[in-house]
Design brief:
This protein is an alpha+beta fold. The protein has four domains: 139 residues, Sandwich (Immunoglobulin-like); 135 residues, Immunoglobulins (Immunoglobulin-like); 132 residues, no CATH class; 168 residues, Jelly Rolls (Sandwich). The chain is 21% helix and 27% strand. Strands 24, 25, 26, 27, 28, 29, 30, 31, 32 and 33 form a ten-stranded mixed β-sheet that branches. Helix 4 runs antiparallel to helix 5 and helix 7 runs antiparallel to helix 8. The longest helix is centred in the middle third of the chain and has 28 residues.
């Protein structure tokens, strides 16, 4: 009897709370203007929570669903946020209905809603970038309905405000050799998403004050080193504004003495860019960004240097001497004439050392265009326009001869060399009428005290690279002859006789890159992707191999990717990629997707099943490099061929564009008939 009485007492207690056999249902939806799941934090993040009454009730109940927690039902609703690891995160949402203090009574077909807003830009909240899950939660411990229920989650990817991009540049691949000087750069770019760009505080003189560079050890602790920060060039001084897409590079010098005491490492270069809040531009980005290199081991240099290491050492020592001279002259920048003359005379010592090193390399390697360029840069630092122009022309000669030895039917000097030649020709004969003569006199005095380099045979006559080329200048100090190559005649500019002609030539037209895009190319039913590929060289066995250029595009971001083919060399020589297709077609177009170092393609050949090669295009890509990296399609269009095409060969001049050239995919357009 006592048991029965206890049972009825329990039923009565439940009935007094309510007759709901199920919980209500919550629905959460995002209501702001965000695209997809992303949120930059620069706009208000808005959600709406909709409450639906329980679908199933106890039999015989027709009453409305009632929820009456203290403070009103809306105060019982909140948003719960968790990060990718499931850890709760406090996002300060504003409950726009939390002040309405009354119970909620819903008909079985009714709904109720409440909105939540958050504008972190106004309250200064900053979250780590990443993906978050947002849920609505209704909880009540008193009243007619008691319990807790969550909505299905909504994903939010917080990408944050656009931040400046920072990278460490100028490092050679391989270890850090003790006793070798280094020149390391920190490059900051105002991302395109930064409205209004970046502005220095009024108290700062230049961007160099905003960038720091450290070498850290395995534990992340800074290594005490004598690192010199190079002054900015005169043209950039006083420019406090960095527009969106623009960059500034600050260079740091690590002299040879500073690297001798380094242990085995590994070490990392760490750059940090800091921009304090501006009192006049409160809405601009402020804060700090960091960039860190991969671990770099340190070791003693090999006792016997390979040709590549000998080249690296010579170039590093030459650049270090040029930097030393720049630092010596910077001390007197803006000072009196006597102070500037004295500084130039002191700078003559490292400038003569740089000249000796550069000439020694150039005379030992006359066929290397970069050696002549190195000498030309030394001459610019010595304010010797005459010899700077002469040596850049030697670089052009060496480049043309290198192309002819590589079998190029048509030769043309690399564009950077042409640009350099034009720039050197525009230099003033004496940048400073008072200081330049003093510098030249100091250099002559030092040269007279040092034994000259052993003489060698002069270069052969210059190649006619342009019908309007300026008159030849007297030859610089003699150097070894360039290696012999094909006969040179004054026919078309840069034409080298002796290379075998192509079997057939079809004059194709380059398709404007602006008219090419991933969506239209991927949707082209008449296009097919490469099925297999071979190449002259490859950077890796699997990653960067020719096979990475087969199939549809899979490099979604511009820049280096192991999912693209990359040649073994970076900025020297030529290379080629040949791709095969499953179906032979009468073709009209070939499209090449370049994901890094765009603009190096110099020839496109279509190959028939019987091996006949048809040159569709040959020349210099007219692409104008953008300020930031971008993925660019290179396409050549020809009238529909009367022959079948089953392979395409792409030739690149690796010296045309600086950087690792990478090709992600190749598409052939055509029909079977």
């Amino acid at each position: 009897m006592n048991v029965v009485r206890h049972f009825f007492r329990l039923v009565f207690a439940v009935s007094s709370v309510g007759l709901w056999a199920q919980d209500p249902v919550l629905q959460l939806e995002r209501r702001d203007s965000g695209v997809g799941i992303t949120w930059t934090g620069r706009t208000t993040l808005a959600f709406r929570v909709t409450l639906f009454p329980p679908v199933k009730r106890e039999e015989g109940d027709d009453a409305d669903f009632v929820i009456d927690p203290p403070g009103g039902w809306r105060s019982a609703v909140r948003l719960v946020v968790t990060d990718a690891a499931g850890k709760p995160v406090d996002w300060p949402f504003e409950n726009r209905g939390g002040t309405i203090d009354h119970p909620l009574s819903l008909h079985r077909l009714g709904t109720a809603s409440v909105s939540f807003l958050m504008a972190p830009k106004s309250n200064g909240v900053d979250f780590p970038v990443g993906r978050y899950q947002v849920r609505a939660r209704l909880a009540s411990t008193t009243g007619k309905w008691r319990g807790s229920v969550d909505s299905p989650p909504v994903m939010v990817e917080f990408v944050g405000r656009a931040r400046p991009e920072l990278e460490v540049i100028g490092l050679d691949e391989g270890p850090l050799f003790r006793g070798w000087p280094m020149l390391v750069g920190a490059k900051v770019t105002a991302s395109k998403g930064i409205d209004g760009g970046l502005t220095l505080p009024t108290a700062q003189k230049d961007w160099a004050e905003s960038i720091d560079l450290l070498l850290v050890d395995r534990a992340g602790s800074p290594v005490t080193l004598a690192i010199d920060r190079l002054p900015m060039v005169a043209a950039e001084l006083g420019q406090s504004q960095l527009n969106a897409g623009d960059s500034r590079t600050i260079w740091f010098r690590l002299p040879a003495e500073a690297t001798r005491s380094l242990g085995e490492g590994p070490y990392r270069w760490t750059a940090k860019f800091t921009l304090p809040a501006s009192p006049v531009a409160a809405d601009q980005w402020s804060g700090s960004v960091t960039a860190m290199t991969a671990p770099i081991p340190a070791m003693a240099p090999p006792t016997s240097l390979s040709a590549e290491y000998a080249r690296r050492l010579t170039f590093a020592q030459t650049e270090d001497a040029l930097v030393e001279a720049q630092l010596l002259r910077a001390v007197a920048e803006g000072g009196t004439t006597n102070a500037r003359i004295a500084a130039a005379q002191r700078a003559a010592v490292p400038l003569e050392r740089a000249e000796h090193l550069a000439l020694q390399w150039h005379q030992s390697n006359p066929g290397d265009p970069s050696g002549a360029v190195l000498v030309a840069n030394v001459m610019v630092a010595q304010e010797d326009k005459f010899r700077a122009v002469a040596y850049v022309r030697r670089a052009i000669e060496a480049d043309l001869r290198q192309q002819s030895l590589d079998g190029a039917a048509e030769t043309e000097p690399a564009l950077p060399l042409r640009v350099m030649e034009v720039g050197f020709e525009a230099m003033a004969d004496e940048p400073d009428a008072e200081v330049s003569p003093a510098l030249h006199a100091a250099l002559q005095q030092i040269r007279a005290a040092n034994p000259p380099l052993p003489p060698s045979a002069p270069l052969p006559p210059a190649i006619a690279v342009s019908p309007t080329a300026p008159p030849a200048v007297p030859a610089p100090p003699p150097s070894a002859p360039l290696p012999p190559s094909a006969e040179v005649v004054n026919s078309p500019p840069g034409r080298v006789v002796g290379s075998p002609p192509a079997t057939e030539v079809s004059l194709g037209q380059i398709v404007a890159a602006s008219s090419l895009g991933d969506p239209s190319i991927l949707a082209d039913a008449s296009g097919q992707w490469a099925e297999s590929a071979t190449a002259g060289t490859k950077y890796g066995k699997t990653q960067y191999a020719p096979a990475q250029a087969t199939g549809a595009p899979n490099c979604m971001v511009a820049g280096n990717s192991p999912d693209a083919w990359c040649p073994e060399n970076k900025n020297v020589g030529t290379d080629w990629l040949e791709v095969s297709f499953a179906k032979a077609v009468r073709a009209t177009e070939v499209r090449v997707r370049q994901n890094d170092a765009v603009g190096a393609i110099t020839k496109i050949e279509a190959i028939s099943p019987d091996g006949t090669s048809h040159v569709w295009w040959q020349g210099v890509d007219p692409y104008t490099p953008a300020r930031v990296r971008e993925i660019v399609w290179f396409a050549v269009h020809v009238p529909k061929t009367d022959y079948l095409v089953v392979r395409v060969k792409i030739t690149l001049n690796l010296a045309t564009v600086l950087g690792w050239k990478e090709i992600d995919a190749v598409q052939l357009v055509g029909t079977a008939e």
